[in-house]
Design brief:
The chain has 134 residues and is mainly alpha-helical. It has one domain. It is 62% helix and 4% strand. Strands 1-2 form a two-stranded antiparallel ribbon. Strand 1 and strand 2 form a beta hairpin. Helix 1 packs antiparallel against helix 5.
Length: 134
């Protein structure tokens, strides 16, 4: 009986890892997009920055908020972030270029996952592994 359980666990472990990666990627994607584009926070959960007064004017004319840097203007940057079953990435050169410029300009890691976002994977992996033990 114990050996059967071990065999079942071993045969299911690869599936559990794939399920955990895919599920975590979707969750991390949602959390990181909200953090960056709605809350305006970097990977350390600090505000990315503030807009200069001339740029606040430009944003204000477009009807955009001006209280903090939220990486939103045309929506192109936000739309260029995508994911597959195990990673989150910029799908075009525009996203890669602008995100690199923003991190350099604000001297912050913006698009890297936070500590909490990284922990999502391990939490989900533990949940999935616990299903195998039962």
């Amino acid at each position: 009986m114990f050996q059967d359980k071990i065999k079942r666990i071993l045969s299911g472990i690869d599936n559990v890892i794939e399920i955990a990666k895919a599920t975590a990627t979707v969750e991390i994607y949602a959390y990181s997009k909200d953090r960056i584009f709605n809350k305006g926070e970097d990977k350390n959960l600090q505000q990315i920055g503030v807009y200069s007064n001339p740029y606040k004017e430009v944003r204000s004319k477009k009807g955009l908020q001006t209280s903090f840097v939220d990486q939103k203007f045309s929506g192109n940057l936000q739309q260029s972030i995508t994911y597959n079953k195990d990673s989150i990435y910029f799908k075009n050169e525009y996203g890669k270029k602008v995100s690199g410029y923003n991190e350099e300009h604000f001297k912050k890691r913006i698009y890297a996952p936070t500590k909490t976002e990284k922990e999502i994977y391990f939490d989900i992996l533990n949940e999935e592994l616990n299903k195998l033990w039962k």
